[in-house]
Write a structure and sequence with these properties.
The chain is an alpha+beta fold. It contains 4 helices and 7 strands; from the N terminus they run E-H-H-E-E-E-H-E-H-E-E. Helix content is about 35%, strand content about 30%. The protein has a 7-stranded mixed β-sheet with strand order 1-2-3-4-5-7-6, sandwiched between helices. Strand 4, helix 3 and strand 5 form a beta-alpha-beta unit.
């Protein structure tokens, strides 16, 4: 059983858990796939700021934090339409727990939140070299919409409609 916990500004322990999980995932992506984009840890100060403007979750299995993700109803810079979507970012599953279904269960939870709050679906952007992540999203019925450049690399923009 997974517990989804939405963080608040006072959850300093949970902020540290998000930081640690993102750091472990960045190191794992570098070691296994030579991906550098998460190697430099996402600053804990940024996580605390995100809690103020986004919905930051940790996912617990028993007493262990096994995943994290951030949701926002603010449109991503890559999308310029007026459709009502929820935007997923900083989605990570503890490396030793990947391929156990936790990621898919997180997506199902996000889908329920999207439906409950009358969003058309979920949108995200993923580093174009993150082949495993792209395959995961496609397996979970996301579709590729387009690619877009960033300052240092390209991203694949994807969505999953839920309504």
């Amino acid at each position: 059983m997974l517990d989804f916990i939405k963080l608040t500004e006072n959850d300093d322990t949970y902020h540290q858990e998000v930081y640690n999980l993102l750091k472990k995932c960045g190191q794992d992506m570098y070691e296994k796939d030579n991906l550098l984009h998460w190697l430099r840890p996402y600053p804990i100060e940024s996580i605390k700021e995100d809690v103020k403007t986004k919905y930051v979750f940790i996912v617990k299995e028993k007493e262990y934090t096994v995943a994290t993700f951030m949701l926002s109803d603010m449109k991503s810079i890559f999308f310029n339409d007026d459709e009502k979507f929820i935007y997923l970012s900083k989605f990570a599953v503890l490396p030793n727990m990947s391929r156990t279904g936790i990621g898919t269960r997180c997506i199902k939870y996000i889908e329920k939140l999207a439906r409950k709050n009358n969003f058309l679906g979920i949108r995200l952007d993923v580093y174009d070299k993150s082949e495993k992540a792209i395959k995961f999203y496609i397996k979970n019925e996301f579709v590729k919409l387009f690619e877009a450049p960033t300052k240092h690399f390209r991203v694949v923009c994807m969505e999953k409609r839920v309504s």
